Structures are given as structure tokens and as C-alpha cells.
């Protein structure tokens, strides 16, 4: 652990060797190694550059990260990515299935302003979904599950919110950086965001196109029994209270998490109800 992490400054230590840099709508994280090297996890919104650089200067004396890793590439997790990667000349890593959205080849599915209720949901039609192109810097995470620059951490494929979404887990410390696989605030509600009420909650419904995959991802993360939950939205949570809420979300996901209405909910229902169109085999 870097001694610098023991000192107060921009952001706060939320798990062993993990600093959370909060913004109004999203969190970024800085993960330190014992040798003082570090990695940035996610890159916030477009205006996040200056605060992230100030935090790096405080916690790591202005040294550049060995890498920037992404849980996924939605606009609120990659907003300052181009500027930071260029400033630090740092490599960027994301899941193989997230590459089309980070190399200009494919836009994200459209947000769904009819799913989940709340003012943020109603506003979601305005949220950017266009791909960015950082082809010269981004590369896939290693297939062996290791995370470049994050010693003793591993990545876990947790699709649903996006098809290439990943979470990062430190087995020894039971620390989890979950991105938007689940969050700790009702992100669809602007009043919940303002009040910062802590609650283990589904991934933001307006930007989640695959609810079956999202359920499996939450269940997989709950089985890890994390002690710390460092999420993309909401104040990080820890301890038995957080774990109990996460396990309840995993058990009751279809009842409490899947929206009753919405574009991708209808698509899911149609796929479940569709008859088997494959020709029967002759006996």
C-alpha cells in the first residue's frame, strides 16, 4: 500500500488501496499497488479531467498511471478518457466485446426513457450513445483474467448493462469494483441521486438492454461475497448490510429489478414467447 493513501485529499479511501473520486453523477477509482504504481478505473464525464488530475497529483504525487481500465464505455465512464490517455500517454484496456464502441465501429443501443421511471430515465433520450475512436490506444483485457497494472486483481465479465461490461475483484481483500453491474443508488431518480441515499440497486434501467445477462452478472458477483462494493454510481458500501442487500437483489432480481415496461423488456418477452422456429428432426 502506498503511504500516500493514508492522507486525506480529493476523494477518499473506500477499500484497501482503492480511492474513490466522486462526481455528481458518477464515480471513478484509483487503485494503488504496494510499489506505488497505480491504475485509473473509468474516466468520468467530459468535465472530469481537471479533478482527476488534481487527485492524481495528491495521491500519487503527479505520477502517471500504468494503465486506464474501463468497466464499460458509456459516456459517463469514458468522458475524460481521450484527454487523460493523451496527457499521461497511458494504454487503455476494456473487454473484447466493448471494442466496437471504443473504436468507432458501433454505437451503443439507444437509451430507453420508458424503463424504470424517474426524472433521469425521462431525460435519458438526451444521453450520448455514439462510439468514440481510440483505436491507437485501446486494447482488450488479457484473456487470462488479469488486469494490467492492478496486481492481485482479476476481471470478471459481467454483461447486461453493456455486452462488454466487466467488474474487478481482489480476492484477498474481497474488494469489488462493480461499475454499473449494480449500483448503490436508485440512479433513475434524480431526487435519490441528490439525497445520496445508499441502496444496492439494479443497473441503470434506461441504459440496460439485456436483463437476463444483467441478472446472471449480479448473481455471479453476489456469490463472491464482496466486503466492499465500489460502484459506478452512488456512495460505495461495505460490510454485511451491503452484502445482504446484494444477495437479496440476486435472489429477487426478476421481481425487483427488471422493469415492468420498456423497449428491451418487450424484446425480452417476445424472445421468451417466440415459438421454436427450427425444423423438427425426422424420427
Q: What is the CATH architecture descriptor?
A: 4-Layer Sandwich
Query: Which geometry do the CA atoms define?
Result: globular
For the termini, the CA-CA separation is 66 Å
CATH superfamily: Ribonuclease Z/Hydroxyacylglutathione hydrolase-like
Mean pLDDT: 92
User: Helical percent range?
Assistant: 25-40%
CATH class: Alpha Beta
Annotation, overall tally of beta strands:
12
* CATH topology-level fold name: Metallo-beta-lactamase, Chain A
H/E series: EEEEHEHEHHEEEEHHEEHHH
**Strand content bin:** 15-25%
InterPro entries: Metallo-B-lactamas, NDM-1-like, RibonucZ/Hydroxyglut_hydro
Domain Metallo-beta-lactamase: 25-233
Protein name: Beta-lactamase domain protein
Organism: Pedosphaera parvula (strain Ellin514)
What does this structure look like?
The chain has 283 residues and is α/β, with parallel strands linked by helices. The protein has a single domain (3-269), classed as Ribonuclease Z/Hydroxyacylglutathione hydrolase-like (Metallo-beta-lactamase, Chain A), CATH 3.60.15. It has helices at 49-60, 81-88, 99-102, 119-123, 190-195, 211-223, 239-251, 253-256, 263-273; strands spanning 12-15, 18-22, 27-32, 38-41, 67-69, 92-94, 138-140, 153-157, 166-170, 175-179, 228-231, 237-238. The strands form two sheets. It has a seven-stranded mixed β-sheet, covered by helices on one side. A five-stranded mixed β-sheet has the order 8-9-10-11-12, with helices on one face. Helix 6 (211-223) runs antiparallel to helix 7. The chain is globular and about 50 Å long. The relative contact order is 0.14. Residues 277-283 have low confidence and may be disordered.
